[in-house]
Amino acid sequence: MIVTLVGAAAIAAGDFQVSARHLQGDAIALFGAIFMSAYLLLVEQLRARRPATLVLLGSSLVATLTAGVYVLGLEQRILPTTGRTWLAVLALALLSQIFGQGLIAFSLNRLSSGVVAIAFLLEPVVAAIAGWIIFGERLSWFNGGAFVVVLWGVYLAIASGSAIKASSPADQEAAAATQLGTHPK
């Protein structure tokens, strides 16, 4: 975990600036990290007792209501007005919410929340490489070294014995029933 955090800090160091102008963005990023950590811990606890689809439905409902209240307070229009923006909303719903959050909810029944959080540190690596490929963003050798450190840290976290949770009795019973061709009670 430490290795990955060092790599992530090295990635951030290239963009680090101390100024009042950046304080608001830094505060938003900090609160985002806190809320994401709380989300992962909560979903991990819920997945121990509920199926991924139910957890995803509940988290989507809470997110929709929270964002809805926020948007109603700030915006005059809350629904897209063109076909192109409807497609963007639909793509976000399918890719980010259903696919992305669904994989998170599914994985938290098998992997620890710490390992899932460490895997999220791959996002800046993927984003930087995508920026380089799509937009021609410049990457330094320092960035490349930081990416390697992050990848190595994620590998070490996933390869560790604490990454994969022990199967619950219900999971073991379901697996045995599947192998025998019967259904668990």
Poorly predicted residue ranges: none
The major sheet is characterized as:
none
**Count of distinct strands:** 0
Radius of gyration: 20 Å
Q: List SSEs in N-to-C order.
A: HHHHHHHH
Helix content: over 70%
The number of helices is 8
Averaged pLDDT, please? 81
Strand content: under 5%
Structural class: mainly alpha
- The general outline is globular
Topology at a glance:
Elements: H1 2-13, H2 20-47, H3 52-74, H4 83-107, H5 113-119, H6 122-135, H7 141-159, H8 169-180
Helix pairs in contact: 1-7, 3-4
Notable features of this structure?
0% strand, globular, mainly alpha, 185 residues
Give a structural overview:
This protein has 185 residues and is mainly α. The chain has one domain (2-180). The protein is built from eight helices and no strands. Helix 1 packs antiparallel against helix 7 and helix 3 crosses helix 4. The longest helix has 28 residues, at 20-47. The protein is globular, with a radius of gyration of 20 Å. The protein starts with a helix and ends in a 5-residue tail after the last helix. The model has no long low-confidence stretch (mean pLDDT 81).
Characterize this entry briefly.
The chain has 185 residues and is mainly alpha-helical.
